[in-house]
Amino acid sequence: MNNGPIGIFDSGVGGLTVWKEVHNLLPQESYIYLADSKNAPYGDKSTPEIISLSKKNVDFLISKGCKLIVVACNTATTNAIKLLRQTYEIPFIGIEPAIKPAALKTSTGSVGVLATKGTLASSLFQKTSKDYGKEIHILEKEGKGLVPLIEAGLIDRKETEELLNSYIQPMLKANIDSLVLGCTHYPLLIPLLRKILPENVEIIDCGRAVAKQTKAVLKNKNLLSKNSKEHFLEFYTNSDKEALEYFLKNYGIQNSVFTSVF
Ligand code: DGL
């Protein structure tokens, strides 16, 4: 089991931003990445739909021999991880908007959260937002339409910048000093965000924290890979391979994307 792959899933290419951090920290591990591109975006779906898609993804990753699963999607984590943990024995690592570090750090008392509708509406997010929003102002905004633009690779288009800008400006008016990226697709927009945001606004993304947590859980369960030589990378999609290949090229990875039915 130790040399089994780590499974990672997302609705599409967004989870690559998490995979990259996990892989940087644990380069000796094998990885199977699943992009459920056919069903993206998850953000507009109901909780039962998100749960059923998440289970399908988990079944695929388990059938491939994964030893741990990273739910590299805020929407799936906030809507489904509790049920996944109750249903399966395999360990899960999730990702959810990092309100806590933003709330602890803020000096203006205002933080912005950009996330999908499904994440913002989830009871897990609502609870966290309520817990940390007692003393500070949390500005929540749905990044409507951003995920399809990213999936289409249109990250440096004027229309993407304008849409993003329309979501950020009201937050800047409210004097935020940090912006929490509550969707794993959004770190792919950091170059655009840096153009829009003043220097004093910190972008908070918790991909690295997820990587650290993955390492800690594998270590604790004695599941860290013992074979540093033979590791592999496989990326699966149930739609066309272009989007994954486009983003993976930036990470120097080629010929590792496969189309599959799941
Ligand atoms: N990348 C995902 C997230 O973190 C899903 C976005 C979507 O499919 O709407 O929420």
Please supply descriptive tags for the structure shown above.
6-stranded parallel beta sheet; 262 residues; Rossmann fold; binds D-glutamic acid; 10 strands; 4-stranded parallel beta sheet; globular; 11 helices
Describe this structure in a few short sentences:
The protein has helices at residues 16-25, 47-63, 74-87, 99-105, 117-121, 123-132, 146-151, 158-173, 190-196, 207-220, 242-250; strands at residues 6-10, 31-35, 68-71, 92-93, 110-115, 137-142, 178-182, 202-204, 233-237, 257-259. The protein is of the alpha/beta class.
Word description of this protein:
The protein is of the alpha/beta class and 262 residues long. It has two domains: 6-95 and 207-259, Rossmann fold (3-Layer(aba) Sandwich), CATH 3.40.50; 99-204, Rossmann fold. 44% of the residues lie in helices and 17% in strands. The protein is built from eleven helices and ten strands. The chain has helices at residues 16-25, 47-63, 74-87, 99-105, 117-121, 123-132, 146-151, 158-173, 190-196, 207-220, 242-250, and strands at 6-10, 31-35, 68-71, 92-93, 110-115, 137-142, 178-182, 202-204, 233-237, 257-259. The strands form two sheets. It has a six-stranded parallel beta sheet with strand order 4-3-1-2-9-10, sandwiched between helices. It has a four-stranded parallel beta sheet with strand order 6-5-7-8, with helices on both faces. α11 (242-250) links the parallel β9 and β10. The longest helix has 17 residues, at 47-63. It is globular and about 50 Å long. Bound molecules: D-glutamic acid. Residues 10-11, 14, 40-43, 73-75, 116, 119, 147, 183-185 line the site of D-glutamic acid (DGL).
